Amino acid sequence: MSKTVAIPRTKTETKVERPRLHKVILFNDDYTPRDFVVQVLKAVFRLNETQALNVMMTAHRKGVCVVAVFAQDIAETKATRATEAGAAKGYPLRFGTEPEE
Ligand code: TYC
User: Fold this and answer.
1) Is residue 28 in some structural domain?
2) Ligand 1 in contact with 32 (CB < 6 A)?
3) Does 68 reside within a domain?
4) Which domain holds residue 63?
5) Which of 25, 26, 27, 30 to mutate to test the pocket of ligand 1 (most atoms within 8 A of CB)?
6) What are 37-55's pLDDT values in tens digits?
7) Whose CA is nearest to atom 11 of ligand 1?
8) Dihedral, CA of residue 74, residue 30, residue 54 and residue 42, to nearest 10
């Protein structure tokens, strides 16, 4: 008895791509005290004093500054936490996220 064996004619290649990283962005406003922005950057993003001052001053001068880059869920959690820290004090401080190119 002869058996027929099918020979596959297509190859399936699976490509795994790393999930895109997301930037956390700090937005300037006219009301949040500079010191408070620096405190939040240190507490939530673990920046040191110099890094926190540079990020705060860049946002202050240019309107926005990238704080750091993380996996999407971490970026979103930190942005929310930092925005809520400002809201708890009645400040309009705002952090957002954006996928990296
Ligand atoms: N512009 C604010 C002030 O002059 C300070 C500030 C800096 C607020 C950066 C937000 O993302 C910010 N008090």
Assistant:
1) yes
2) yes
3) yes
4) 21-99
5) 30
6) 999 999 999 999 999 999 9
7) 28
8) -40
